[in-house]
Amino acid sequence: MPIVKKNFSLVILGIIFVSILPAVIEFYREWRKLRSQPRQDA
């Protein structure tokens, strides 16, 4: 696959991006959930 050989660094970056994406999405969901809750100061 000559396309993969020419753009190997982009393929690696794509794999890293796809593998990190679920964690980023989950972090964002939790962050939004916490922001939407009313604050309860102690």
What does this 3D model show about the protein?
- It is a single chain.
- This protein has 42 residues and is mainly alpha-helical.
- 81% of the residues lie in helices and 0% in strands.
- The protein has helices at residues 2-6, 8-36.
- The radius of gyration is 18 Å and the shape is rod-shaped.
Low-confidence stretches: none
Order of helices and strands: HH
User: How many strands in all?
Assistant: 0
Class derived from helix and strand content = mainly alpha
| Tally of helical segments | 2
The percent range for strand residues is: under 5%
Oligomer: single chain
**Gap from first CA to last CA:** 61 Å
The major sheet is characterized as:
none
Give a topology summary.
Elements: H1 2-6, H2 8-36
Q: What would a concise description of this structure say?
A:
With 42 residues, the chain is an all-alpha fold. The chain contains 2 helices and no strands.
Structure characteristics:
single chain, 42 residues, mainly alpha, 2 helices, rod-shaped
